[in-house]
């Protein structure tokens, strides 16, 4: 269109200002605060697990199999007499390593690929076909295939969980770059003779940061969930390394007898994912109120 | 612009429509090729002997040699790939390492429970999620909106198996409303079928309700901001007409995309739900395959579900053209 | 036409179609901001009333309030009354308000593309107005739709009915909007900048259509606009708004000849006169920029889309000498911006040559082009988007010089000087673009371009997004800079008034071709081509010499619409 709205009227800026979240202490909303506190507690518990845990998480005790919750065993014991509370604490480590690891790797791989795809047409055509193909494979099945081929070590599980997340990051970065490179300020940079790497680094990359942070939280939540599902299905890390998923997997047989074997790790798992998702939503609202929303002035 | 003369108009539109569909079909071929290539390379590039992986731990040297022979592992990669693709196209997805039955036969035997679960889940999801999303967007910022959003975050944060066990505990064990686990074919009566499918379907639906309600809300919020919605209100139309005729129709494309990809990728949820509720479907087949390290089955499941994903996406793309006149060129 | 009446809105007579009394609109939320402050206005039967103001004046909010369409949860009317045919809109229940819309008052909007629903056919969008409000049967509705579509002079009504908005041109879409607004013959039509997004020739047709229908149906029109030219052409009475308050109101001839308030006076004097400037004496013979046979064709046929490439520019020959200003004028799609982007090498021309101080740059590779880039710089249309919001003003201005090896401290020192040159304080250097107004941002963009010490400045609609008073200041600045630095200016604009004021030479483009090219005084003063004449005749308010509060010398019928007295 020839003339951009020459006389955007008073309502425009005012309405926009209203929807811009102000970050003030008094405005702190309840849900994100609780989520942050929950997550902090879980992270600290995971870090300090060796200090807090009353028992060795893998020490079996045939005398106390399937004990009910008590003062000595707050969450009871499992079929091998291992303390479920201690196992749940150590399980948090596994989930957090996988969550943070997957988010980091997905961003570190996805960001450069997305930036390049957004700028080079030929590379874009090839890369996006590959990404489309990867997206077509259900992530759980892909992870199962990788693990069943390469064995279930921490590294293969991490790789298996991260691969399906990468296309999402690449697509996100690429779409941000594609729309940002149409901005006149990018053309202005070309006009003043800035080199391609400089334009990417200085003018395009910063646009991707806010959506990337948001996406990383979702990747983190999703990775934790996938790890739990893999372990639950028996395709995760062996039970000598406790994870919330494999505690629950082992608890399935005794579910009707001792529901706690599933509910306690399930509760922590759900809480962690919920907290991360809420923080992700909050980050999205604060960092970029128009993320995924339409036109901008 | 109205370029074509009136008589050519309809013919031209049909031509563009056909051309559009042909383009979409062609565009999905590379995706299938990439999937096949990926699955192919996954086995070949994994450290270790593919034949040993396929044969399992107990294989004799003769068995290994036979597998090498049949996969053509001694030939160059490119010709291995072509042979393999040829086998896939002729319907040969390999045999199970355990039962030695063709994988496709195994899958066929397990299809009914999974399809039943998927269809009931889809019905529950669509009936609940879209009205929830529309109302939340319409009452943006209200208590209803917040409630829908809160349920939505809960829905996709709580893993399917946790939801499943909670529902079993409440409705099957405590209230004794439903059987705890199992599956009955719809052929054995609607009552027994429904009583066993409701809990797993609802369990699986929670994720999709959450996802689709959220997406519907977002798409509606965006559309409700559009000028033509203001025009519709300026014309004195009722809110119902504004919401459903003007807003929802324009929001349909993103909503349909999420619905489509959601259901195309439902297999992940199905695997877990089936193992929680002990349903003998594809999910159970998958879990058995994992435990037995029966790689050909896993490989076939990947190829099959990816194929379904591509087909569903193709159907969505084509349906865009019917929903949005701008795509009809 | 509108009866002569005194302008005191408070003394609203019974017969007025619209009476707004002491309207106050505020933002909702904890700290309400007053958007409309005590505004009163009236519209008599059959009258055309213009509500004029710059951005942020609250004129659109006033019109939305009248339709009961204030965005929920963002704005709310706090006090006052809005009477449409005697009935208060603000206190009407939602169901009653819906009944009143389209039957008593209707509205048309600025962007006919986005204001029409893209997935419904024209007939469906008209039909729902009739079915929502009346008891007409399907056959009556069908014939009424066809009747109203021919009333707004749409061609081939039958096919128009089955068309979707994206298949229509901008002007056709706005005609459909008008048909939709008037199909139930409401007494009041509110038009919110209905021609701002249209080309001048289309604008002229739409304004004519509104006047014609108004005469036929006796509709009253409340016309919201920022364009004094349009006001001069159509208004019976005028209300001038600023910052949510009414500044002045009165009959059109009074406002144009004897404005009482300074603000109104400033608004009028800022409107550039349509009389072309006399070409300045050439100070230099040196050609800095020359294109010959420049052509740009977009797109090629692909396997499934057998499309002719779109010819955006064809055989464009232009020549610009040092210190002069060459204007390229034309409507949207004329190819004027394509030419600008080609000479900047933001896009690669498909044929022809571009010579910058004698050097051919059309075919240069990215690296070979680099030394030449700094000689030609661009000022973009929208200063909100041409400055990277994340960088400080200083970083934006020094980016270019640093690219070419200037030490950072030196570049910053130069940036400070440039900021002062464009009329900004030197300490602006460490602030971010969002801390400045639109006009100030355009000054920053100019400083950035000048930092490269270019021989040629390309200004692509550089003042089109600015309010008229700001526009005048930026034009003065460009003029001043040119005098001081001797830079040549390639000025792309759709606005003949702006071109007349600033250009020495002007090229008129239509459908990718230059149809007329010569000194501004000749091209605009004595046009040889029919298209140029058409453009000039379509310029709104061309009979009025705004800065001097009088009709253009020699113009006949200065105010066709002026009330009888």
TrEMBL record, chain A:
<comment type="similarity">
    <text>Belongs to the binding-protein-dependent transport system permease family.</text>
</comment>
<dbReference type="InterPro" id="IPR035906">
    <property type="entry name" value="MetI-like_sf"/>
</dbReference>
<dbReference type="InterPro" id="IPR000515">
    <property type="entry name" value="MetI-like"/>
</dbReference>
<dbReference type="Pfam" id="PF12911">
    <property type="entry name" value="OppC_N"/>
</dbReference>
<keyword id="KW-0472">Membrane</keyword>
<keyword id="KW-1133">Transmembrane helix</keyword>
<feature type="domain" description="ABC transmembrane type-1">
    <location>
        <begin position="92"/>
        <end position="280"/>
    </location>
</feature>
<keyword id="KW-0813">Transport</keyword>
<dbReference type="GO" id="GO:0005886">
    <property type="term" value="C:plasma membrane"/>
</dbReference>
<keyword id="KW-0812">Transmembrane</keyword>
<feature type="transmembrane region" description="Helical">
    <location>
        <begin position="140"/>
        <end position="163"/>
    </location>
</feature>
<dbReference type="GO" id="GO:0055085">
    <property type="term" value="P:transmembrane transport"/>
</dbReference>
<keyword id="KW-1003">Cell membrane</keyword>
<protein>
    <submittedName>
        <fullName>ABC transporter permease</fullName>
    </submittedName>
</protein>
<feature type="transmembrane region" description="Helical">
    <location>
        <begin position="30"/>
        <end position="53"/>
    </location>
</feature>
<feature type="transmembrane region" description="Helical">
    <location>
        <begin position="209"/>
        <end position="233"/>
    </location>
</feature>
<feature type="transmembrane region" description="Helical">
    <location>
        <begin position="96"/>
        <end position="120"/>
    </location>
</feature>
<dbReference type="Pfam" id="PF00528">
    <property type="entry name" value="BPD_transp_1"/>
</dbReference>
<feature type="transmembrane region" description="Helical">
    <location>
        <begin position="261"/>
        <end position="280"/>
    </location>
</feature>
<dbReference type="InterPro" id="IPR025966">
    <property type="entry name" value="OppC_N"/>
</dbReference>
<dbReference type="InterPro" id="IPR050366">
    <property type="entry name" value="BP-dependent_transpt_permease"/>
</dbReference>
TrEMBL record, chain C:
<protein>
    <submittedName>
        <fullName>ABC transporter ATP-binding protein</fullName>
    </submittedName>
</protein>
<keyword id="KW-0813">Transport</keyword>
<keyword id="KW-1003">Cell membrane</keyword>
<dbReference type="InterPro" id="IPR050388">
    <property type="entry name" value="ABC_Ni/Peptide_Import"/>
</dbReference>
<dbReference type="GO" id="GO:0005524">
    <property type="term" value="F:ATP binding"/>
</dbReference>
<dbReference type="InterPro" id="IPR003439">
    <property type="entry name" value="ABC_transporter-like_ATP-bd"/>
</dbReference>
<keyword id="KW-0067">ATP-binding</keyword>
<dbReference type="GO" id="GO:0055085">
    <property type="term" value="P:transmembrane transport"/>
</dbReference>
<dbReference type="Pfam" id="PF00005">
    <property type="entry name" value="ABC_tran"/>
</dbReference>
<comment type="similarity">
    <text>Belongs to the ABC transporter superfamily.</text>
</comment>
<dbReference type="InterPro" id="IPR003593">
    <property type="entry name" value="AAA+_ATPase"/>
</dbReference>
<dbReference type="Pfam" id="PF08352">
    <property type="entry name" value="oligo_HPY"/>
</dbReference>
<feature type="domain" description="ABC transporter">
    <location>
        <begin position="18"/>
        <end position="268"/>
    </location>
</feature>
<dbReference type="GO" id="GO:0015833">
    <property type="term" value="P:peptide transport"/>
</dbReference>
<keyword id="KW-0547">Nucleotide-binding</keyword>
<dbReference type="InterPro" id="IPR027417">
    <property type="entry name" value="P-loop_NTPase"/>
</dbReference>
<dbReference type="InterPro" id="IPR017871">
    <property type="entry name" value="ABC_transporter-like_CS"/>
</dbReference>
<dbReference type="GO" id="GO:0016887">
    <property type="term" value="F:ATP hydrolysis activity"/>
</dbReference>
<dbReference type="InterPro" id="IPR013563">
    <property type="entry name" value="Oligopep_ABC_C"/>
</dbReference>
<keyword id="KW-0472">Membrane</keyword>
<feature type="domain" description="ABC transporter">
    <location>
        <begin position="298"/>
        <end position="536"/>
    </location>
</feature>
<dbReference type="GO" id="GO:0005886">
    <property type="term" value="C:plasma membrane"/>
</dbReference>
């Amino acid at each position: 269109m020839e003339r951009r709205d020459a006389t955007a009227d008073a309502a425009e800026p005012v309405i926009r200002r209203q929807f811009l979240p102000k970050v003030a202490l008094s405005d702190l909303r309840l849900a994100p605060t609780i989520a942050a506190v929950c997550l902090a507690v879980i992270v600290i518990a995971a870090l300090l697990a060796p200090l807090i845990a009353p028992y060795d998480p893998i020490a079996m005790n045939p005398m106390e199999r399937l004990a009910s919750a008590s003062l000595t065993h707050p969450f009871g014991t499992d079929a091998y007499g291992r303390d479920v509370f201690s196992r749940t604490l150590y399980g948090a480590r596994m989930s957090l390593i996988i969550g943070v690891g997957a988010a980091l790797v997905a961003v570190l791989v996805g960001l450069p690929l997305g930036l390049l795809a957004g700028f080079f047409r030929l590379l874009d055509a090839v890369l996006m076909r590959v990404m489309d193909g990867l997206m077509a494979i259900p992530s759980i099945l892909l992870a199962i295939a990788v693990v069943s081929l390469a064995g279930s070590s921490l590294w293969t599980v991490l790789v298996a969980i991260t691969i399906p997340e990468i296309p999402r990051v690449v697509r996100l970065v690429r779409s941000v770059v594609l729309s940002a490179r149409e901005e006149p300020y990018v053309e202005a940079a070309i006009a003043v003779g800035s080199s391609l790497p400089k334009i990417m680094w200085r003018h395009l990359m910063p646009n991707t940061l806010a959506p990337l942070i948001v996406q990383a939280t979702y990747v983190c939540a999703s990775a934790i969930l996938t790890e739990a599902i893999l372990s639950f299905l028996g395709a995760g890390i062996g039970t000598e390394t406790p994870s919330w998923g494999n505690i629950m997997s082992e608890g399935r047989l005794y579910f009707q007898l001792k529901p706690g074997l599933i509910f306690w790790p399930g509760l922590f798992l759900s809480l962690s994912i919920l907290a991360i998702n809420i923080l992700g939503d909050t980050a999205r609202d604060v960092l970029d109120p128009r993320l995924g929303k339409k036109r901008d002035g | 612009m109205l370029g074509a003369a009136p008589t050519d108009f309809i013919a031209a539109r049909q031509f563009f429509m056909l051309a559009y569909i042909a383009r979409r079909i062609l565009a999905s071929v590379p995706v299938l090729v990439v999937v096949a290539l990926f699955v192919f390379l996954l086995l070949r590039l994994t450290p270790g002997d593919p034949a040993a992986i396929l044969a399992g731990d107990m294989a004799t040297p003769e068995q290994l040699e036979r597998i090498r022979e049949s996969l053509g592992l001694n030939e160059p990669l490119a010709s291995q790939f072509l042979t393999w693709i040829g086998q896939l196209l002729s319907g040969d997805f390999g045999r199970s390492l355990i039962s030695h039955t063709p994988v496709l036969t195994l899958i066929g035997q397990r299809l009914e429970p999974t399809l039943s679960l998927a269809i009931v889940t889809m019905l529950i999801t669509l009936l609940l999620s879209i009205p929830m999303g529309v109302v939340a967007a319409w009452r943006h910022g209200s208590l209803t909106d917040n409630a829908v959003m809160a349920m939505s975050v809960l829905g996709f944060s709580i893993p399917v198996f946790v939801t499943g066990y909670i529902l079993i505990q409440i409705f099957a064990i405590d209230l004794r409303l439903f059987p705890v686990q199992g599956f009955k074919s719809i052929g054995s009566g609607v009552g027994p079928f429904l009583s066993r499918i409701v809990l797993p379907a609802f369990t699986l639906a929670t994720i999709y309700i959450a996802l689709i309600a959220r997406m519907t809300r977002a798409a509606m919020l965006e559309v409700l901001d559009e000028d033509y919605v203001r025009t519709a209100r300026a014309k004195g139309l009722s809110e119902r007409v504004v919401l459903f005729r003007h807003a929802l129709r324009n929001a349909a494309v993103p909503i349909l995309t999420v619905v489509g990809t959601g259901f195309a990728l439902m297999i992940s949820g199905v695997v877990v739900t089936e193992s929680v509720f002990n349903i003998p479907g594809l999910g159970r087949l998958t879990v058995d395959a994992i435990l037995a390290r029966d790689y050909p089955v896993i490989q076939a499941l990947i190829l099959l579900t990816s194929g379904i994903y591509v087909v569903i996406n193709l159907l969505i793309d084509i349906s865009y053209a019917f929903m949005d006149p701008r795509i009809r060129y | 036409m509108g009866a002569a009446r005194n302008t005191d809105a408070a003394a609203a007579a019974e017969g007025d179609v619209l009476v707004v009394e002491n309207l106050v609109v505020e933002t909702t939320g904890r700290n309400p901001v007053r958007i409309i402050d005590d505004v009163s206005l009236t519209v008599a039967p059959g009258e055309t009333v213009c509500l004029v103001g710059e951005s942020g004046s609250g004129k659109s909010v006033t019109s939305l309030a009248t339709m009961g369409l204030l965005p929920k949860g963002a704005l709310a009317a706090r006090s006052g009354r809005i009477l449409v045919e005697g009935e208060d809109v603000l206190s009407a229940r939602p169901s009653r308000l819906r009944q009143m819309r389209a039957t008593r008052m209707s509205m048309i909007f600025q962007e006919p593309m986005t204001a029409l629903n893209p997935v419904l056919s024209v007939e469906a969008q008209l039909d729902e107005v009739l079915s929502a409000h009346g008891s007409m049967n399907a056959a009556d509705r069908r014939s009424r739709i066809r009747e109203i579509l021919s009333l707004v002079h749409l061609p081939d009504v039958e096919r128009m009915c089955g068309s979707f908005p994206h298949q229509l041109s901008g002007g056709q879409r706005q005609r459909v909007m008008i048909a939709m607004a008037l199909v139930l013959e409401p007494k009041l039509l509110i038009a919110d900048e209905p021609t701002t997004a249209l080309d001048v020739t289309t604008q002229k047709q739409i304004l004519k259509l509104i006047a014609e229908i108004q005469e036929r149906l006796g509709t009253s029109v409340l016309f919201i606009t920022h364009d004094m030219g349009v006001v001069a052409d159509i208004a019976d009475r005028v209300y001038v708004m600023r910052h949510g308050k009414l500044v002045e109101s009165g009959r059109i001839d009074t406002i144009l000849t004897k404005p009482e308030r300074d603000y109104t006076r400033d608004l009028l004097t800022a409107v550039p006169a349509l009389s072309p400037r006399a070409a300045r004496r050439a100070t230099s013979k040196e050609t800095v920029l020359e294109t010959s046979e420049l052509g740009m064709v977009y797109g090629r046929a692909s396997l499934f889309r057998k499309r002719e490439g779109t010819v955006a520019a064809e055989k464009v020959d232009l020549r610009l000498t040092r210190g002069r200003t060459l204007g390229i004028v034309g409507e949207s799609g004329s190819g004027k911006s394509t030419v600008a982007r080609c000479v900047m090498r933001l896009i690669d021309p498909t044929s022809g040559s571009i010579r910058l101080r004698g050097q051919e740059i059309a075919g240069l590779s990215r690296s070979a082009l680099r030394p030449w880039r700094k000689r030609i710089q661009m000022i973009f249309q929208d200063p909100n988007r041409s400055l990277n919001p994340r960088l400080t003003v200083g970083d934006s201005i020094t980016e270019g010089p640093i690219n070419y090896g200037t030490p950072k401290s030196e570049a910053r020192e130069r940036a400070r000087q440039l900021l002062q040159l464009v009329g900004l304080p030197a300490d602006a250097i460490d602030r971010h673009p969002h801390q400045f107004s639109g006009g100030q941002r355009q000054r920053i963009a100019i400083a950035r371009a000048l930092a490269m010490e270019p021989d040629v400045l390309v200004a692509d609609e550089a003042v089109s997004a600015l309010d008229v008073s700001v526009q005048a200041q930026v034009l003065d600045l460009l003029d001043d800079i040119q005098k001081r630095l001797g830079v040549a200016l390639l000025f792309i604009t759709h606005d003949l008034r702006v071109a007349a004021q600033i250009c020495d030479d002007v090229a008129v483009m239509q459908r990718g071709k230059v149809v007329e090219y010569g000194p501004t005084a000749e091209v605009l003063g004595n046009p040889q081509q029919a298209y140029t004449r058409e453009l000039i005749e379509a310029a709104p308010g061309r009979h009025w010499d705004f800065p001097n509060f009088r009709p253009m010398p020699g113009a006949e019928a200065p105010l066709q619409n002026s009330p009888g007295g």
